[in-house]
Amino acid sequence: MQEYITFLQNHPLLISGFAAVLVLILWTELRRLNKGYSDLSPAETVQLMNREDVVLLDVREDSELGQGKIAGAKHIPLRNVAKRATELEKDKDKNIVAYCRIGNRSGVACNQLVKRGFEKVHNLKGGFTAWQSDNLPVSKK
Fold first, then answer.
1. How many CB atoms lie within 10 A of CB 122?
2. Are 101 and 124 in contact (CB under 8 A)?
3. Which of 139, 131, 119, 138 is nearest to 37 (CA)?
4. Is 96 in contact with 113 (CB distance < 8 Å)?
5. Could you give the residue numbers annotated as active site?
C-alpha cells in the first residue's frame, strides 16, 4: 500500500492527466446516454422499418436531393425543422428516423424533435452516404 502512496506523491502530473481523461470519458458517455434519441445503422433502420411504422425525415438541403433520397422520406431542410415540426405531430407515436448526408445535421434535427416532445426519435448513423454504401434502395424522384 505504501508503494501506491509513494507513486501518487511522485507522479502528480500523471495522476492529474489520468483523472482528467477519466472525467472526459464519463462526461461523454453520460451525454450519449442522455441525448434522448438513438443512433441506428442503415441495417438497423431497415429492421425497424420492417417491424414498426417509421417516418423517414430527410433534413438535407434542396440542392442535395439530386443524389436521390430514401423512398418515402419526408423532406424538411434542417433550417426549417423547428418551424415545421407541427407537420410531424400526427406521426408523434411513430418512430422518426432523421438523416442528412453523413449524419451530423440529422443529430441536430433529432435534438429539436426531442425538445418538442417526440419520444421515438432516431438518427441514421452515417446518413444518406452510409445508406448508399450499403447498397440500399434509393429513389431519384
1. 22
2. no
3. 119
4. yes
5. 100
- Domain residue limits, the chain: 2-32, 37-133
Closest CA to 59 of 77, 41, 42, 71: 77
Mean pLDDT by 10 residues, the chain (141 residues): 89 92 87 82 98 97 95 97 93 96 96 94 98 95 70
C-alpha cell at 138: 434509393
Question: CATH classification of 37-133 is 3.40.250.10, yes or no?
Answer: yes
pTM of the predicted protein model: 0.78
Q: Which three cell numbers stand for residue 122?
A: 432516431
Distance, CA of 90 to CA of 111 (rounded, Å): 19
In terms of phi and psi (left: phi > 0; alpha: psi -120 to 50; beta: otherwise), the region of 114 is: alpha
Specify the DSSP element, H or E, that contains 107: helix 105-115
